C-alpha cells in the first residue's frame, strides 16, 4: 500500500485484474514470460519490480531483470528451487553439511 500512497511512484500491474485496475495501470504482459517483462520494464524506465506470485520467480524473473539493471524483490531462480523442490533443498543441506532429517528420495512410478 505504501507504493500506492506515494506521489513519487507510478504502479503498474501485469496483467492485473478488476480490483487492481482501480489502483494501477494495467499492462498486458504474461508475468511468467520473464524476458518480455524485463524488456518492457527496461523500455519503460521501471526502477523496481515486486512480483506478486512465486511462478515468475521460479521462471527466473530476478535473474532476467537484474541483467538489465532493474531492481527486484525476490530470490534468484536457483534459490527459488530450494522452496519448490524438497529434493533440491535436501541436496543443498547435505552438501553444506547442515542438519536435516533422515530420509530417502523416492522415485514415483507415476512420473
Provide a descriptive summary of the structure in words:
With 111 residues, the chain is mostly helical. Helix content is 39%, strand content 7%. The chain has helices at residues 2-5, 34-43, 55-58, 61-67, 77-84, 86-95, and strands spanning 12-13, 25-26, 48-49, 71-72. The strands form two sheets. Strands 1-2 form a two-stranded parallel ribbon. It has a two-stranded parallel ribbon with strand order 3-4. Helix 5 (77-84) crosses helix 6. The radius of gyration is 18 Å and the shape is elongated. It starts with a helix and ends in a 16-residue tail after the last helix.
**How would you describe the shape?**
elongated
Q: How many beta-strand segments?
A: 4
Mean pLDDT: 85
- Residue stretches low in confidence (pLDDT < 50, at least 5 long) are none
Q: Strands of the largest sheet, in order across it?
A: 1-2
Features:
two-stranded parallel sheet; two-stranded parallel ribbon; mainly alpha; 111 residues
Question: In a nutshell, what does this entry contain?
Answer:
With 111 residues, the protein is mainly alpha-helical. The chain has helices at residues 2-5, 34-43, 55-58, 61-67, 77-84, 86-95; strands spanning 12-13, 25-26, 48-49, 71-72.
Summarize the helices and strands and which ones pair or pack.
Layout: H1 2-5, E1 12-13, E2 25-26, H2 34-43, E3 48-49, H3 55-58, H4 61-67, E4 71-72, H5 77-84, H6 86-95
Parallel strand pairs: 1-2, 3-4
Helix pairs in contact: 5-6
Amino acid at each position: 500500500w505504501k507504493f500506492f500512497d506515494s506521489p513519487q511512484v507510478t504502479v503498474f500491474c501485469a496483467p492485473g485484474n478488476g480490483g487492481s485496475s482501480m489502483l494501477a495501470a494495467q499492462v498486458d504482459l504474461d508475468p511468467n514470460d520473464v524476458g518480455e517483462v524485463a524488456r518492457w520494464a527496461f523500455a519503460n524506465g521501471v526502477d523496481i519490480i515486486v512480483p506478486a506470485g512465486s511462478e515468475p520467480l521460479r521462471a527466473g524473473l530476478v535473474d532476467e531483470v537484474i541483467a538489465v539493471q532493474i531492481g527486484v524483490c525476490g530470490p534468484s531462480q536457483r534459490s527459488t528451487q530450494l522452496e519448490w523442490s524438497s529434493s533440491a533443498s535436501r541436496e543443498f543441506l547435505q552438501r553444506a553439511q547442515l542438519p536435516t532429517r533422515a530420509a530417502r528420495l523416492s522415485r514415483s512410478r507415476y512420473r
